[in-house]
Amino acid sequence: MTNQMVQINPEQAIRLKELGYQLQQFRQKQRISLDVVAKKTLIPVRLLAAIETGNIEQLPEPVYVQGFIRRYADAIGIDGIELANAFPAQTDLRLPKASWRGTVQAQLRPLHLYLIYMVLVISAVSGLSYLLNRSSTPQMPAAQVPQSPGQPNVANSPAVPLGPQNGLPIAQPSALPSPLSLPSQTATALSQKSVRVGVMMTAQSWVRIVVDGKTEFEGVLPEGTNRAWEANKQLILRAGNAGGIMVSLNDGAAKRLGEPGAVEEVTFGTDAKAAQLQASPAETLTASSSSAF
Question: Over 50: is that where the pLDDT of 283 sits?
């Protein structure tokens, strides 16, 4: 697995090989295939094979590996809790220091930005509506000045050309004023100034959020959690259980980040390609998108 998020200690690698070999021997003795175990546990076959062979580089964070071992053991008839506790899940992951992010002001910050964004959008729409209504309003004809009885009707009188014989130049009709041209209306009222990413947890997962090059959050989010982050240029989302996360881009429709138990990393940007969240997490979501495998 590229870009290993945590430092794997040698004890974890050794214990994984021992437990994986024990699971493989018991499964083969019971004549149970990996496909059957995958259907019972909802764990991909490649991750089950990595557990049996002790290939820790192909597995997510140790806390998820411990859960995989428990579900695997329960599926083939072994005490999953006892076997999972034999695998050390502690890592060298450093917890972020407490800062102003935990205060009430920091929690209200995304809401304030969202309200400001809504006010700007409403103002832009109102301005466009005003311009459209102004252009569609018919212009009233100019009021005609009544002619006095002694004045001849110029419109009905024959035109008398003036030439060199009386020394007066021929009057040229004055050009009518051209109508004012309305400014061209672009397809969008506002250019994309920021990117907003919301997550809804359908299962527990480890998550790391990097906003404009700075880590805003790193930790485990429980099932049922709803969070949102906003970046001016770039937002990077990395998750240890992609199947347990629903992601929405700029308040659009939520999409599942990936498969259960898979580690995925996605980059969101503010360019034109970031207008929609694609259905598949492996596809390009914004300027760039990379998978953890």
Answer: no
Q: Which fold has domain 10-85?
A: 434 Repressor (Amino-terminal Domain) (1.10.260)
Neighbour-count burial for 133-145, b at 16+ CB within 10 Å, e otherwise: eeeeeeeeeeeee
For residue 148, the cross-strand partners are none
Domains of the chain, residue spans:
10-85, 105-110+192-291
Give the whole-angstrom CA distance, residue 73 versus residue 93. 27
Helices 62-76 + 10-29 axis angle, to 10:
20
Write down the pTM of the prediction.
0.34
**Which candidate, 258, 292, 261, 203, places its Cα nearest to that of 43?**
261
> Hey, what are 276's tokens?
């929609």
3-state per-residue secondary structure call for 71-135: HHHHHHCCCHHHHHHCCCCCCCCCCCCCCHHHCHHHHHHHHHHHHHHHHHHHHHHHHHHHHHHHH
Residue that the structure tokens 């870009």 belong to: 3
Q: How many CA atoms lie within 13 A of 3 on its CB side?
A: 10
Residue 63 has pLDDT above 70, yes or no: yes
